[in-house]
Amino acid sequence: MEKAKVLYDFDGEEGNGELTVREGDVVTVIRQNVGDGWWEAETSTGQKGLVPEAWMEIMRGPPAIPSGPPSAPPPTQTYEDDDWDDDDDDDDDWDDSEKSSVHQPANHHQPGKNESGINGAGNFGLHSANRDRKGSEPTGKGTVKLGFANRFSVFAKAGGEDYLLGSQEGKSKSVSGTILYTIVDSEDGPVWGSPREPFHVDIKNPKKETKLKGIKSFICYQVTPSNTGIQVSRRYKHFDWLYARLCSKFVTIVVPPLPDKQVTGRYEDSFIEKRMDQLSRWLERMTAHPVVSQCDVFLHFLTCTDGKEWKKGKRDAEKDDFLGAAFFQVLGVPQTVLDITVVERQHENFHKFVKSMEASMGQITHVIHEHGKRHIGPFKREYQKMGRAFKEVATSFELDTRPRINDIDAPTEGSQQLTDAIKFTGKTYDEIGDLFAAQPRNDNYILEDFLREYTGMLSCFPDMISFHKHTISTVKECQKQREEQKMEFDEAEQIKTRADVVSYGMMAEINHFQRQRVYDYKEIMKLYLGEQIKFYEAITEKLRAAMTQYDNVNV
C-alpha cells in the first residue's frame, strides 16, 4: 500500500467516518476508489477513515509546495443513458409499472419517504450529520480553508460552497456572466422577472401503445402548448426525466413531485383519466413559473418532435453547465446589498411558516379524506336507513281499513294521501343518501387532490431552507474571519455578493409561492363552497318537494 503526505490540516467528522489529520502527517492509503474525491486511509496510530483526496499527496518523489488548500471534493455528476426515446430496446423496462431509473437529485424529495418531514430531528428536519466543518488556524491574512458543509449535505452536493467561494467561475463551457434570468424588486419584495409571453398546456387523448410486437405496452399523452399549437406525444417516463432534470437544475425553486407510479390497474380508464388530470396540473404549475417555463429543458420537453433532436436536447440538458448552485451564475439580481441579519430573520420566519402549513395540510387532508369516506359510507347508509323506516311506516298505514257499515275494506282518501306522502318521504331520503355518496366527486376529492398537491410542494422546502441556511452561515463565518483579520476584505465581500444572489433567489421563490398560494386557495375554496351550496340546495329542494306532499292530505 502507498504512503501519502497530508498537505493541509483536516478536521474530520467522526460520525461520517472521517479522519482528523494534520499537515505533514504521513498516512497509509488503503483505497483510492471510494468515490466523490475521498480516499480511505490509516494513520500511524492505526486509526482508519476517509480523507479528502485533494488534501493528500502520494509520496513518490519531492513533494510540491502547495499555494493554498483546495476546495472540498465536488460531487460526482451522473448522467442518464442516451437511449431515451420509445424506439430504443434498452429502455423497455422504463414503463409505468417499473421503478424509474432516473436519479433523484438531492434537493427535492418525495413526501412520505421521511414521515417526519421538516418536523424531524436535525437542522430544519434533515436527518444528517453536523454540517459545519472546522477549518485550521491560519497564520495570517489571505485565503483560508473554508469548509462549511460536509459532502453529504444538500449545500455541498448542489455545489453551494464552490459557488460562494468562486471556484465554479471559469469552469463552465458556456460564456460565464451571461444573465439568463432576472429578479426585480417590487412593492411585495423581490420577484422573478416577467417571462416572455405566458402560455398554458393541454393534455388530451391518452392512448395505449405497444412496442416489441406487443410485448411492452404504455400510455402516451398528447401534450399541446398554446404558444406553438404543436402536439407532442409523451409517456410518464418522459415526465419523470423532466422532473429529475428540473430538480437538478433549480435548488431554490419548487418543483413539486409527480403523481406516484402504479403497478396494477394502470390501463383502466379511471386511472388514465386521473393520471392525465394530475400530469396536467403539474405541467400547468410549471408553466406558470416565470423561470421554469422559460428554461431550455422544459421547452425541449414541450416542443421537440424529432427523434434525433430529442436525443441531442436530452444530452445537452444532462450536461448543462448551470446546474445546482451554478444556476446563480446566470441570475441577475437588484443592486441593493442585503442585510444578513434581516435575511436570517426572514429565513427563520418562513421556516416557521412552512412547518405550520405542513402540519395544517396534514390535518385538513386527513379530515377531508375521512369526510369523503363518510359520505359514501355512513352518511348514505343513515339516510337510506331513515328512508326505509319511513317506508315501513307507510306500509303499516296501508293496513288502515276503517270499520264501515257497507263492508268496504279500504282507507279513507285522507289516509291514503298520508300514506303516499310518507312513501314519498322515504324515497326522498333514499335519494338524499345517493346524493351524499355522489357528492365527494364534486368537492371533497377535488379539494383533497389540491391539498395533496400543496403537500408535495411543501416537501421541496426543507432542502431549499437547508441550502439557504448554509449560505447564511457561510457569510457569517466569513464576516467573523474578516473581523479577526483571517480573511481579506475583498474576498469576504465577493462571497457576500454571491450569497446575496442566493438570498434574492430564495426570496423571489418564496414570494412567488405565497402569491400563488393566495390565488390557488381563493379559487379552490370558492369552488368547494360553491359545490357545497349546490349540494345542500339540492337536498333542500328534495325536502321541500316532500313537504308539499302533505299539503294535499285531506283530514
Can you walk through the features of this model?
The strands form 3 sheets. This protein has a 5-stranded antiparallel beta sheet with strand order 4-3-2-1-5, with no helix packed on it. The protein has a 3-stranded mixed beta sheet with strand order 7-6-11. It has helices at residues 154-157, 160-165, 236-249, 269-287, 296-303, 307-318, 340-397, 413-438, 444-458, 461-483, 489-548, and strands spanning 3-6, 26-35, 38-42, 48-52, 56-58, 181-186, 189-192, 201-211, 216-225, 232-234, 331-332. It has 11 helices and 11 strands. It is of the alpha+beta class and 555 residues long. Residues 62-68 and 74-145 have low confidence and may be disordered. The longest helix is centred in the C-terminal third of the chain and has 60 residues, at 489-548.
Task: Write a compact overview of the structure shown.
With 555 residues, the protein is of the alpha+beta class.
SSE-based structural type: alpha+beta
Distance between the termini: 109 Å
Helical content stands at 40-55%
Q: How much β-strand is present in the residues?
A: 5-15%
Strand order, biggest sheet? 4-3-2-1-5
Largest sheet: 5 strands, antiparallel
Helices and strands in order:
Elements: E1 3-6, E2 26-35, E3 38-42, E4 48-52, E5 56-58, H1 154-157, H2 160-165, E6 181-186, E7 189-192, E8 201-211, E9 216-225, E10 232-234, H3 236-249, H4 269-287, H5 296-303, H6 307-318, E11 331-332, H7 340-397, H8 413-438, H9 444-458, H10 461-483, H11 489-548
Parallel strand pairs: 6-11
Antiparallel strand pairs: 1-2, 1-5, 2-3, 3-4, 6-7, 8-9, 9-10
Helix pairs in contact: 5-6, 7-8, 7-9, 7-10, 8-11, 10-11
